[in-house]
Amino acid sequence: MEHSHLHFFVRLTKLLVVLVCLYFIVKLKSVWLPFLHLFIKISTPFFIAAFITYLLHPVVEYVHQRGMPRAFAILLIYAIFFGGIGFAVYKGTPLFIAQLEDLNKSLPMFVRTYEQWTNVIHEQTATWPYDVHQRIEAMIAEAESFISEAVTGTIIGLKQLINRVIVLFIIPFIAFYMLKDVELMKKAAWDLTPKKWRNEGVQFLRDVDRALGGYIRGQLFVCLLIGTAAALAFWLIGMKYPLLLGIIVGATNVIPYFGPIIGAIPAAIIAATVSVNMLFLTVGIVFLLQFIEGNILSPLIVGKSLHLHPLIIMFSLFVGGEIGGVLGLIVAVPIVAIVKETFMHIRALKTTVH
User: Fold this and answer.
1) Is 271 helix (H, G, I), strand (E, B) or coil?
2) CA 80, 86, 87: angle at the middle one, nearest 5?
3) Where are the transmembrane segments (predicted)?
């Protein structure tokens, strides 16, 4: 009995020490926050290069195992990947920025169109309480302000990114050396890991890679296909800003379940200012593409590598959206998959010990 009480007080003491440390860390954030921002700024190119290496490494290994020397396999995949991205950026960025600036200039026209609609709604709902009308008008003003700020912020962010030519230029070189020396990096990580954790650590990383790697690579490929198809379809029907809207549809497709709805909203709003037929065509294209993605592309390319229940995915999306906004929605599911694998390995270790 005394031993259990002692064990409880030891745990309570540890918890209190952790809470006190967290308190002082938060209080001293003015000291360490600038260093954290500097670290993030310096390490961002390396993180991007590491992510690219993670995406391309399996493809390089596949080509290498088919008989091509490793160095040539790296150069081939590397040239195709960065050559394709470079060509797309070179051709697409000016057009993308031009469409963004045109959209920003056209916002007042869109707002006037929606104001006319709201006036009609206002007249037809004259018997509604005055507070309801005020709330509707406030929502329209907030939406206009949000869209304008988002478009302006995107333009500024893109121009700042283009201005950071050195950062963009150095990422391919970092990724090349990471691909070339990936085995050396694995060996260095192995040597730095304590011996008692090595076998479990390797198995844990393999399980995470098996669950997460296929999902991430497959999802990105599906997003590329859906975004390209959407941009082409919008261009064929004469929709405004086809490249911009195609990128939005493709990018939001990375978010499970809610992504298609988020991607369809901007296209539907713009199409509604053109004509009713354009609205139906645009919404029809988006949902047709999502039907193809959900029933053909994702099962074929992505599969069910995560093995997560839909309710868990939806809950993680709500939590991620509340904490991190759009970025939280994107990273929520991969983080939950990693947490799941972590708990499974901890449970397996406890079972082995006992």
Assistant:
1) helix
2) 90
3) 12-32, 38-60, 72-90, 161-179, 220-237, 312-339
pLDDT for residue 15: 78
Please tell me the total number of residues recorded for the chain in this structure: 354
**Burial group, residue 111, by CB count within 10 angstroms (0-12, 13-18, 19+):** middle
Q: CA 242: distance to chain centroid?
A: 21
The number of C-alpha atoms within 13 Å of 127 and in the hemisphere containing its C-beta is 0
Terminal-residue alpha carbon distance, the chain: 22
The contacts of residue 263 (CB under 8 Å, 6+ apart) are 248, 249, 250, 251, 252, 253, 286
Is residue 107 within 8 A of residue 144, CB to CB? The reply is yes
23, amino acid identity: Y
- What are the 10-residue block averages of pLDDT along the chain, 354 residues in total? 61 78 76 79 83 84 82 82 78 75 70 64 59 65 63 62 66 83 79 73 76 78 88 89 85 78 80 82 87 76 65 78 73 80 73 58
* 8 Å CB contact between 174 and 49: yes
Give whole-number Cα distances, 339 to 71, 201, 207, 333, 335, in Å: 35, 14, 12, 10, 6
Q: For the chain, give every domain's residue range.
A: 40-184
- At 297, the amino acid letter reads L
Cα 214 from chain centre: 15
Question: What residues contact 317, with CB distance under 8 A and at least 6 apart?
Answer: 255, 256, 257, 258, 329, 332, 333
Integer Cα distance of 349 and 64 in angstroms: 35
Supply the pLDDT for residue 79.
81
What the block records as the tokens of 41 is 């700024």
Q: What is the distance between the alpha carbons of residues 253 and 225, in angstroms, rounded to a whole number?
A: 10
d(CA 53, CA 60): 10
